[in-house]
């Protein structure tokens, strides 16, 4: 039987209006299903830890830490999680050593002038010391119903965006344009259909959804939550995205983080956009 799923937003650009949480341009979400607890992204700072404490959420009892991709607004909080786990070890507090799941390119340096690196502050070698590391470009099942999608096939031309100044340093030292192949997402099977949880959707929210349906063998999508990377989309991308999401007949869409207000307003004409921010809790 499919377990119930609970999701709590620990970091987002916005916070719920009537609550006193910290917001920042980043994302972090806690997912609980069955007896598993998964932290999806860590935001930019320690805000996810401070918000979790306010919500009464224990981050010492994590089974997995999943990184959607290597950018600073999703990985720089990892330093603070390492500090929190180290403190628990020093003071003999009960805690787990989570498995860290990400795409193999997640920890590669990512120069983006004028910034020398917008990638993870923790290199792969150190991440392997602090966590049990599982890097995979293929789908990786965290539970029987929750999967890390790995590398997303790029199928919709309207979602292709040029890398601009973004670069990635490969293990041999070669500097290449960063096509953000490490951008991934989670998909969770529920009795009503799939819930898709995204970081930034650099791979394209339609590409992600299409691949999630394929990996999970399920066409029904009930909710998508996370960043849609619709900051200044082209008219072609906006039109294609709206048409695609409309045809999914979604029950809810929790677009947040890197989704502009103007994009949300347009999306709301095609699918049920709901308010999302730090403190949002959803159950399926």
Short description:
With 284 residues, the protein is an alpha/beta fold. Helix content is 23%, strand content 24%.
Strand order of the largest sheet: 6-5-4-3-2-1-15
Report the principal-axis shape: globular
Q: Extract low-pLDDT stretches.
A: none
The termini sit apart by 13 Å
CATH class: Alpha Beta
**What is the CATH homology-level superfamily?**
Ribonuclease Z/Hydroxyacylglutathione hydrolase-like
Structural class: alpha/beta
How many separate domains?
1
CATH topology: Metallo-beta-lactamase, Chain A
Architecture (CATH level 2) name:
4-Layer Sandwich
Mean pLDDT: 97
Strand content: 15-25%
- Order of H and E elements: EEEHEHHEHEEEEEEEHEHEHE
**Rg value:** 18 Å
- Total beta-strand segments: 15
Helical proportion?
A: 10-25%
The profile of the biggest β sheet is:
7 strands, mixed
- What is the number of helices? 7
Protein traits:
7 helices; seven-stranded mixed sheet; alpha/beta; six-stranded mixed sheet; single chain; 284 residues; Metallo-beta-lactamase, Chain A
What can you see in these coordinates?
This protein is α/β, with parallel strands linked by helices and 284 residues long. The chain has a single domain (5-275), classed as Metallo-beta-lactamase, Chain A (4-Layer Sandwich). The chain has 7 helices and 15 strands. The chain has helices at residues 47-55, 72-75, 78-90, 124-130, 205-216, 235-248, 261-267, and strands at residues 5-11, 28-33, 36-40, 64-66, 99-102, 132-135, 140-141, 146-148, 167-169, 175-177, 185-190, 193-198, 221-227, 252-256, 281-283. Strands 6-5-4-3-2-1-15 form a 7-stranded mixed beta sheet. It has a 6-stranded mixed beta sheet with strand order 7-8-11-12-13-14, with helices on one face. The chain has a two-stranded antiparallel ribbon with strand order 9-10. Strand 13, helix 6 (235-248) and strand 14 (252-256) form a beta-alpha-beta unit. The longest helix has 14 residues, at 235-248. It is globular. It starts with a strand and ends with a strand. The model has no long low-confidence stretch (mean pLDDT 97).
């Amino acid at each position: 039987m499919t377990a119930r799923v609970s999701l709590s937003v620990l970091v987002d650009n916005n916070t719920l209006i009537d609550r006193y949480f910290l917001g920042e341009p980043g994302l972090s979400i806690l997912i609980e299903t069955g007896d598993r607890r998964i932290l999806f992204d860590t935001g930019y700072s320690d805000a996810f830890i401070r918000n979790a404490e306010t919500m009464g959420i224990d981050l010492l009892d994590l089974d997995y830490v999943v990184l959607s991709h290597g950018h600073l607004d999703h990985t720089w909080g990892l330093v603070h999680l390492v500090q929190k786990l180290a403190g628990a070890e020093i003071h003999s507090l009960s805690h787990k050593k989570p498995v860290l799941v990400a795409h193999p390119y997640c920890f590669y340096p990512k120069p983006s002038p004028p910034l020398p690196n917008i990638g993870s502050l923790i290199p792969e070698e150190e991440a392997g010391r602090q966590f049990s590391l599982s890097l995979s470009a293929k789908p990786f099942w965290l539970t029987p119903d929750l999967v890390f999608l790995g590398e997303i096939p790029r199928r919709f031309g309207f979602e292709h965006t040029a890398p601009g100044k973004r670069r990635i340093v490969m293990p041999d030292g070669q500097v290449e344009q960063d096509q953000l192949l490490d951008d991934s997402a989670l998909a969770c099977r529920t009795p009503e259909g799939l819930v898709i949880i995204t970081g930034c959707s650099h791979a394209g929210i339609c590409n992600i959804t299409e691949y999630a349906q394929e990996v999970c063998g399920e066409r029904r999508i009930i909710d998508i939550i996370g960043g849609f990377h619709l900051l200044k989309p082209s008219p072609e991308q906006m039109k294609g995205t709206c048409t695609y999401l409309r045809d999914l007949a979604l029950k809810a869409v929790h677009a947040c983080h890197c989704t502009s207000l103007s994009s949300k307003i347009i999306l709301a004409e095609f699918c049920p956009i709901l308010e999302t921010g730090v403190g949002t809790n959803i159950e399926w």
